[in-house]
Amino acid sequence: MAEKLLKKGNEAIALAAIRYGADGYFGYPITPQSEVMETLMEEMPWETTGMVVLQAESETSSINMLYGGACCGKKVMTSSSSPGISLMCEGISYMAGAELPCLVVDVIRGGPGLGTIQPAQGDYFQAVKGGGHGDYKIIVLAPASVQEMYDFVGLGFDLAFKYRNPVMILSDGAIGQMMEKVELRDPVRRLTDKEITEKYGHWATVGKPASRKGNIISSLSLAASEMEAINLRLQAKYQKMRENEVRFEKTMCDNAEYLLVAFGSSARICEGTLEIARSKGIRMGLLRPITLFPYPETAIREMLPQLKGIMSVELNAGQMVEDVRLAVNGAVPVEFYGRMGGSIFSPEEVFEAFAKKFNL
Amino acid sequence: MDIKDIIKPENFVYGKSKVLTDTVMHYCPGCSHGVVHKILAEVIEEMGIQDKTIGISPVGCAVFAYKYIDIDWQQAAHGRAPALATATKRLYPDKYVVAYQGDGDLASIGTAEIMHACNRGENIVVIFINNAIYGMTGGQMAPTTLLGMKTATTPYGRRADLNGYPLKITELIAQLEGTCYVTRQSVQNPGSVRKAKKAIRKAFENSALKKGTSFVEIVSTCNSNWKMTPVKANKWMEENMFPFYPLGDIKDR
């Protein structure tokens, strides 16, 4: 039997980092995710797996420590919350440009600005549409439970190295702070330096043997034609992600006439809304995107023939709804319901909004 | 005697380090970067650590350092080289990690990163090129620009009331517990080049001994943006830079 513990989402991230063989965590305190680094410091993985854990002087520094660590072919990660992620966006753009693998956990709080420490999903655009400068994409995973917080650390590292690209776990203060049962998976051991050199020595800065040229990791290429070629290569990679990495979960969708689309904690709340709707004889389903990039647009599109309407439910002013509308392309009405600034809706509230928007 | 009879290995008195590539440098004639690259490459070669050294290049003229010194390189965002170096050294404690930064990179946008890396005593080598100006972007005021010095953004000369004072960041860094060796050198003549090379070698040796951060400032010229000939720039540096940025070891323990 696998070990089961009652843990906060943030604690699960920390435990997963150690058990999935992370080489380094670099972070800076910010509510509501400080338990990630606190848990790591309590666990002292440098004594067991050899994992490095370091409190940096800023989020700017954290993400650039990731850049350095990722250059070394090591599994490196950080966690932060909205304002801290804003500071990291420069580094994420550089890492996407230099094609470096890393895992960034964003436990979103309400914004804009210093905002609030309560949960929100107002950073969907920042995570999915860029945040930093330039035409880049990162894979964005949206956990809806403490178990997924744990599991997505492993999945996130796998995808980061598969594509040599940053991966983000886009969580929020609710998932980060709530306690649930979490099953610990079998530990994955850290790679040795020798194994890293064998696996990634063709690109990573592991020290240059006489047998090869120096490895240079950079996002700089001053010639426009070269930079365009790099961009085309990146875009081809993002297309592969779209083809291979879309993940989503459908609930009660088989005979649904109405569809709620929600991710993360909103999706958890919408499960209650489904029950209310079904008890009233309304055939409602829920589609929960697990990857926000790549987005499950085909999954939504395939349901269109059976649907009378869709409502995107988010803890923001309406961000993901734009991607739903792009997928639907006017075929059925797409409505939005959301709350902002750290306020959370109840299942009943979502149902009332739905009934009003579709005159039911 | 034919020239071919003279060109023989036993007659060589000087050679290019094997750690330097054959790529033609983009640096302006008279620039100090080329000399510092040369002695850095020589130190790496002489210590036999080419396969164990990881370089971090900055944003600024030395962004392309990776083209000239034949080791593994990471190219950092502006000012962040010490953060990259920190993680690299912590993840590979037995390798040599050298961050190469200019004055805008290290003493302006990257002040937080260099201060904290030095304060943590990361076992890295920092080479700090101080030519009192932004070279790559075309000669704007640097944090180390002297009072009265004309730059593209101080066209009438740097004024303390408008632009603040030149920053002696090396003296600040020497105050930090984490640094073991803080020195200020120059490379404008053979004697100073030899001293600067010795300092860089010592910094690498400290790194192996895990004594803390070693910080080598090289007071340098940027004759193009100073709008001087190389010879005049060297003289100007000796007369104006050295009184404010005096050479020598500030800390050695």
Spatial strand arrangement across the major sheet of chain A: 3-2-4-5-7-6-13
Distance from N terminus to C terminus of chain B (CA atoms, Å) equals 53 Å
Number of strands of chain A: 15
Provide a count of the helices of chain A: 13
The largest pleated sheet of chain B is described as: 7 strands, mixed
**Number of folding domains of chain A?**
2
Q: Write out the strand line-up for the largest beta sheet of chain B, numbering strands in chain order.
A: 2-1-3-4-8-7-9
Estimate the mean pLDDT confidence of chain B: 97
**Oligomeric state of the chains in view:** heterodimer
Describe the global form of chain A.
globular
CATH-derived topology of chain B = Rossmann fold
**Treating each run of at least 4 consecutive H or I residues as one helix, how many helices of chain B?**
11
- Pick out the low-confidence regions of chain B: none
Strand content of chain B: 15-25%
Give a description of the structure.
The complex is a heterodimer of chains A (360) and B (253). Chain A has helices spanning 9-19, 35-43, 59-71, 82-98, 124-128, 146-163, 173-177, 193-200, 224-244, 264-279, 297-303, 320-328, 347-357, and strands spanning 4-8, 24-27, 52-55, 76-80, 102-108, 139-141, 166-172, 179-183, 216-217, 248-251, 258-261, 284-289, 291-293, 309-314, 334-338. Chain A is an alpha/beta fold. Chain A has 2 domains: 4-183, Rossmann fold (3-Layer(aba) Sandwich), CATH 3.40.50; 249-357, 3-Layer(aba) Sandwich (Rossmann fold). Chain A has a 7-stranded mixed beta sheet with strand order 3-2-4-5-7-6-13, with helices on both faces. Chain A has a 5-stranded mixed beta sheet with strand order 10-12-11-14-15, sandwiched between helices. In chain A, strands 1-8 form a two-stranded antiparallel sheet. Chain B has 253 residues and is an alpha/beta fold. Chain B has helices at residues 3-6, 33-47, 65-68, 81-91, 103-109, 111-119, 160-163, 169-174, 190-209, 223-226, 230-244, and strands at 53-57, 72-75, 96-102, 125-130, 133-134, 140-141, 179-186, 213-219, 248-252. In chain B, the strands form 2 sheets. Chain B has a 7-stranded mixed beta sheet, with helices on both faces. Chain B is globular. Chain B starts with a helix and ends with a strand. Strand 9 (216-217) of chain A pairs parallel with strand 2 of chain B, so a sheet runs across the interface.
